[in-house]
Amino acid sequence: MSETIAQERRRSFRVDDDVHLVFRVIKEDSEPRQHGEDQTVQTCRALMQLRELSSQSGHILANIRKQHSDIAQYLALLDKKIEAVAQIAGAMSMGGDMAPNIRVNIGVGGLAFSQDSPLLTGQRLAMRIVLFPSHLCIQPKGRVVYSREQAQADQQHRHRIGVEFEPLTEQEQDQLIRHLLEKQSAQRRRERGMDVD
């Protein structure tokens, strides 16, 4: 019971985030993906595995730090170098400098964003989402669950789109949850800093 509640909380946990989002509508009779997209998928998977290994090695590094702080410091620097190379490789595989292009509300279950044109409820989307600053790339498929015209005249984009992800892999879920928690922690630190001022 408690595990089910924890899973539901993880699914409903969402943050506002600036990401790089590219998507296309999936047509049932669409042709297979081009080779370039396949290469991007492979690069995204390799970078995700690299980050997973880095996360797993964090526990080992903590144990080394207790007995050999100088060795732990050196290993932490190597980890930062590898992360920097991963970011460069990720940016290059996606066509050069990558920067956020849209603000979304994102969670493990899906995302919402605003844009100028509507989408049709029920349409399936193939998405590529790059998260910052890690350049973590996930490529979920999803279904449009709503497409609403926004009432406020001051809204830059007229339509609010909600997309529910098709099930993510366990690795994608873990990486996305880690990213969301880091974003939330950073936001709380900023808020505490503002309170101090």
How are the elements arranged and paired?
Elements: H1 2-12, E1 14-25, H2 35-67, H3 69-93, E2 102-107, E3 110-115, E4 124-131, E5 136-138, E6 141-149, E7 159-165, H4 170-196
Helix pairs in contact: 2-3
**CATH class category label:** Mainly Beta
Distance between the termini: 43 Å
- What's the total count of β strands? 7
- Tell me the fraction of residues in β-strands, as a range: 25-35%
Shape field: globular
Summarize the structure.
The protein has helices at residues 2-12, 35-67, 69-93, 170-196, and strands spanning 14-25, 102-107, 110-115, 124-131, 136-138, 141-149, 159-165. It is α+β, with helices and mostly antiparallel strands.
Report what the structure shows.
- With 197 residues, the chain is of the alpha+beta class.
- It contains 4 helices and 7 strands; from the N terminus they run αβααββββββα.
- The protein has one domain: Beta Barrel (Thrombin, subunit H), CATH 2.40.10.220.
- It has helices at residues 2-12, 35-67, 69-93, 170-196, and strands spanning 14-25, 102-107, 110-115, 124-131, 136-138, 141-149, 159-165.
- The chain has a 6-stranded antiparallel barrel with strand order 1-2-3-7-6-4.
- The protein is globular and about 60 Å long.
Keyword list:
single chain; 197 residues; alpha+beta; Thrombin, subunit H; 6-stranded antiparallel β-barrel; 4 helices; 7 strands; globular
